[in-house]
Amino acid sequence: MTTERMKNLHPYVPGEQPKDRDYIKLNANENPYPPSPVVAKTAVRVARKYAARLGLYPDPDSNALKSAIAAMLNQTGGVLCRTELRGGKKNGSGAVCSPSAQDRIPFAVTPDMVYCGNGSDEVLSFVFYAFFDSDRPVVLPSFTYSFYPVYAGFYAIPLNAVPLRSDWSLDTQNMLAEANATDSGIIFANPNAPTGIGLTRAQVDAMIRAAPKDRVFVVDEAYVDFGGESCIPLLAEHKNLLIVRTFSKSLCGAGMRLGYVVASPELVAHLTTVKNSLNHFPVDVMAQRLGIAACGDAGYYARCARLIVCERDDFAAFLRARGWFVLPSQTNFVFAKKDGVRAEETYRAIKAAGILVRHFSAAGIEDFLRITIGTRAQMDALKAVMESL
Ligand SMILES: *Cc1c(COP(=O)(O)O)cnc(C)c1O
Fold it and tell me: How many angstroms is it from 220 CA to the middle of ligand 1?
């Protein structure tokens, strides 16, 4: 009954969302904090105002949302929280969102450089469709966001997965050698998942300079607000650079399904062509309005990010003090393993105690647990469970 192309589908398996029990969820890198009070208020207002107008389509191109995203990026320099560099206070009050001169984006991000979609997952699928072809492989790291291979299967695009280095960082030299050998595009998350390790902007800049100029170079910045460096400033120079971002992690909005691209207007126009050939209206009225509200309160999200960063560093220290090997994280999760500890069993024991963390069975990372950073209370609960094991 099914088509040939169905054979290429290998659906992504998301972190479990069980409803049988009220678990503490530290398995899907969701933000433990509620959205800004401004967003909550907007939700109520929009529900009232648009209830009578639900029969009307939303703006197909999310123009007001694009403007709000551009304004937020210009205001913050593309990263919500740089307190690691500035010594912010532990309670989050030291979080800053206005960048110093050296962190500012050296040009104005304009709305025509932004593309909005139904979660960055949808946006990424359009990126694969528009820019990667079946005539040559896409180069990516052996361990990165595991949805990329799913899209590659969907569109029948071959992959060239380059092993990580022994310290779990990207092997940029080998990735470049492979990309140049086949004149291929490149994609990775920065900071990377599930490792949590990031490249500096200067490292990505050097990489783009040495990569094929006629192929799109994709950097997925889903986690950049937790201590990474954004590559948005590099758009001034690199017309083949495409940056993917999401409201799901640092903007406390996984349930809104909002993702976006920042790139040259030319690349954005191609994504719009794909959208208009598949689904004219990927972002509903509510998500557009709530996204705009979220962009207007960057300070709130910067404080949340700062709290998460403090909690992450505490938790990594807790694990290390107990003999765990913890990769240096610039994200809202840690990736850790311990000699003599079977990760899958530990995952099960933690789950039995009411807390969900993530275990990947893929060969090479099967000894690790990926643990999302929650609130202080959630992390205290997890620490207590881990002490008792
Ligand atoms: C969470 C995540 C996404 C997906 O985000 P959505 O906007 O919720 O679809 C994309 N890329 C990476 C690397 C992620 O970790």
Answer: 8
